[in-house]
Amino acid sequence: MQVVVLSNLNAGKLVFPFVYVLFLLILPKSIPRWILLLVGFGLGSIVDGYLHSYGTHAFSCTIIAFIRPFLLATVAPKDFSAEEGIITVYDIGFQKYLLYAGVLVVIHHFFVFLIDELRVGSVFTLIKQLFVSSLVSMFIILCLQYIFNKKK
Q1: CA angle, residues 146, 138, 59, in degrees to nearest 5
Q2: Roughly how many angstroms between the first and final C-alpha of the chain, as a whole number?
Q3: Do the Cβ atoms of 54 and 144 come closer than 8 Å?
């Protein structure tokens, strides 16, 4: 979906929704950290291969894969027990999921746009892209969460 549909979204040079990050967000809590890092790097590398972005997404996905366990431990309720299943908005609640996913999406987008803007060079463009793209990505991620996951 990311490569075929969303990468061809023509909304100027402002909106770049990266919804593939959802794959890292929903992985089970019990996944070993080294596997999570490898999955993050692999996922980012696949997207880099299709988008010809030379490691930008691999770096950004590896960063959020590293941060994810710490953030999840902070945000998830103490009785959170989705050890084997995927992490959904129903597991940790809307507000906590919004915080969990929102922080990781913003961090991912920040590094993607920062690396891209190092080539282009405008801080104002970086901030606009970060804000708008993160909002659009979070909207799509939340919609997908509610469409494909049933309330428990």
Answers
A1: 125
A2: 27
A3: no
Specify the pTM: 0.85
Sign of the C-alpha dihedral, residues 42, 67, 134, 84?
positive
State both tokens at 15.
């909106």
Are 112 and 87 in contact, with CB atoms under 8 Å apart?
Answer: no
| Cβ neighbours, 10 Å, residue 100 | 21
Q: Token match 């027990």: residue?
A: 81
Amino acid, res. 113: F
d(CA 27, CA 21): 11
**DSSP, residue by residue, 105-131:** HHHHHHHHHHHHHHHH--HHHHHHHHH
Q: pLDDT at residue 58 above 50? A: yes
Query: Within a 10 A sphere around the Cβ of 58, how many other Cβ atoms?
Result: 20
Q: Which helix (H) or strand (E) holds 100?
A: helix 94-120
> What's the pLDDT at 86?
81
